[in-house]
Design brief:
Gyrase A, domain 2; 6-stranded antiparallel beta sheet; 32% strand
Length: 252
């Protein structure tokens, strides 16, 4: 049975103008030449290859829309503005309500590119069915190791490999250069990642987000978001045996 929720903490950063595609193509991890009428997921990195912003990408007439967290929209707009130079682009921000379903595809909405089963996402229109809470959506994401923005990503610290952006269908390793591409490509092709997001079991009281996880005196990672008895944590890959013995993550 399908579920849907309404996300009210979202905003559109719209990029319009003759240079909009080329402008964004050199900044984001996704290959926007494949956009068409689809919904894509991607990110903007720091020059050092760390996560700076994440967003969904779609077309709106002659413009390109970046759907992001509302409280980070102005920062994204400001960052894009610093790279405009003489490009023929204009930027705008507006709040938006987003419809998100999973376990059911909904006519009139594009497919969510992330690994949520049968998920649709888009601007809220008239819909029927049973609405559930945002927490139900976050729980579904946590179960699949899908980070949800600032709940789970440490901006300026996490790399593409840390949050497994390729698993989220959010990065292209075949497109041309973009900001932060050198480190991202090197970590991917040389398998240099030492940590990643894992679904963890949470016992009350849960650790606050972005606090250290210490087991038997060993720092094994950092907690991210949680809902009830489950959560996401950034764990060292070499600490998984210890985490499994302590019941923090499921055994393999």
């Amino acid at each position: 049975m399908g579920s849907y929720t309404i996300l009210t903490d979202r905003a559109f950063v719209t990029v319009k103008g003759a240079d909009s595609l080329d402008f964004l193509q050199g900044l984001v991890t996704q290959d926007l030449t494949t956009l068409g009428n689809r919904l894509l997921y991607g990110a903007m990195l720091t020059p050092q290859g760390k996560m700076d912003h994440e967003f969904f990408v779609s077309r709106d007439g002659d413009g390109i829309v970046l759907e992001c967290e509302m409280h980070r929209a102005d920062a994204l707009l400001k960052k894009l503005s610093t790279y405009k130079l003489r490009r023929q682009v204009s930027l705008d921000v507006q709040p938006v309500r987003i419809f998100q379903s999973w376990n059911t595809l909904v006519d009139g909405y594009p497919l969510d590119p992330r690994p949520l089963p049968a998920a649709s996402r888009g601007v809220l229109k008239a819909v029927s069915g049973t609405e559930v809470s945002n927490d139900d959506y976050y729980r579904a994401c946590i179960a699949r190791k899908i980070p949800c923005g600032s709940r789970d990503i440490a901006w300026g610290e996490d790399t593409v490999a840390d949050i497994n952006l390729d698993y989220l269908n959010g990065v292209s390793y075949t497109k041309g250069c973009y900001m932060g591409q050198e480190l991202t490509s090197r970590m991917h092709h040389r398998a240099l990642s030492k940590r990643g997001l894992y679904t963890v079991n949470v016992t009350a009281p849960s650790l606050p987000a972005f606090t250290d996880i210490v087991v038997d005196g060993n720092l094994i990672g950092e907690m991210r978001s949680s809902v009830g008895d489950t959560g996401l944590a950034m764990l060292r890959h070499d600490s998984l045996n210890l985490a499994q013995r302590m019941g923090l993550v499921a055994g393999t």
